[in-house]
Structure formats: structure tokens, C-alpha cells
Design goal:
Elements (H helix, E strand, L loop, with lengths): L8 H9 E6 L5 E7 L6 E2 L5 E5 L3 H6 L7 H8 L7 E5 H7 L15 H14 L6 H12 L2
Antiparallel strand pairs: 1-2, 2-3, 4-5
Length: 145
């Protein structure tokens, strides 16, 4: 979705989360460096980076977004004002898929507290439900923070 001018959400997040990011006339990242907090990897090719929805779209749908308007769903999918979109290693993001924290946590254990806090912030802001297994995992991680 457009975030102003020729830039879409992916390009805005790549620029925001990267270092020394250079963009071409169409806003695509052609140079830069990205650190993935999920696995600690650093990448110099934007093709190796996915923009992760902390709370995945399918997860949000199952947690209440199914009752939202199209405009509300689009706003959630492209939300740059909360900790909902981050640049991460593509294959790690693909392993996450639409799993919740009871099913998947970032491989880098030192990021667990940050990730869990981000998840709770997004779920709370959008008034999305949390299932029992998810709640137990969130509580267990946060108790260790």
C-alpha cells in the first residue's frame, strides 16, 4: 500500500530499519544493510529481507479482524505507527508464517522480551483476542523480562 509518493510500505520499512539505505527513483532499496533482530543476521541485499507483521494478518483475522471493515484491515496491514512491521530475514519470517508466540518465537532468545512486548502492544491496541496457549506463553516470557 502507498505510504506517500512512489513508496509502498515495504520500501518505507526497509529505509527505516536499514543502515545507509539508498533508494532508486521508484523508491526501491538498491543499497543498504539490514540487521534482523529475529536471528541476528545482517544482510546487504534487500531481497533477503521480508517485512514481518508482528501479529500476522491471518492471526489477526482469527483474533477479531474478520469483523473489521476493509479500511480497518488495510490500516492494520500497513501500520507504521506501532511496533507491527519490521524488517527481518526472509526465511525466518517464512518459518514463522501465521503462528502465534505459543507456536513460534524468534530464534534469537535475547529478542524474546522485545518481541513479546510488541505482540501484546499490537493485540491490545487493535483489541484482538488471545487464546489460552498464547496467553500462557506471553505471560511466561514477560515474567522473565
Amino acid at each position: 500500500s502507498s505510504q506517500g509518493g512512489a513508496c509502498n510500505t515495504r520500501e518505507v520499512v526497509l529505509k527505516r530499519d536499514g543502515e545507509d539505505v539508498q533508494q532508486d527513483g521508484k523508491c526501491a532499496a538498491v543499497e543498504g544493510r539490514w540487521f534482523s533482530p529475529y536471528d541476528g543476521a545482517t544482510w546487504e541485499d534487500a531481497q533477503d529481507i521480508d517485512i514481518d507483521h508482528i501479529v500476522p494478518l491471518a492471526q489477526a483475522w482469527r483474533s477479531g479482524a474478520n469483523a473489521w471493515t476493509t479500511a480497518q484491515r488495510q490500516a492494520f496491514a500497513n501500520d507504521l505507527t506501532r511496533s507491527q512491521l519490521i524488517a527481518v530475514t526472509d526465511r525466518v519470517n517464512q518459518a514463522k508464517g501465521d503462528k502465534d508466540p505459543a507456536q513460534w518465537m524468534p530464534p534469537l532468545a535475547s529478542y524474546a522480551c522485545t518481541y513479546t512486548q510488541m505482540w501484546v502492544t499490537v493485540k491490545h491496541h487493535y483489541k484482538l483476542t488471545v487464546d489460552p496457549a498464547e496467553k500462557n506463553k506471553l505471560a511466561a516470557v514477560l515474567n522473565g523480562c
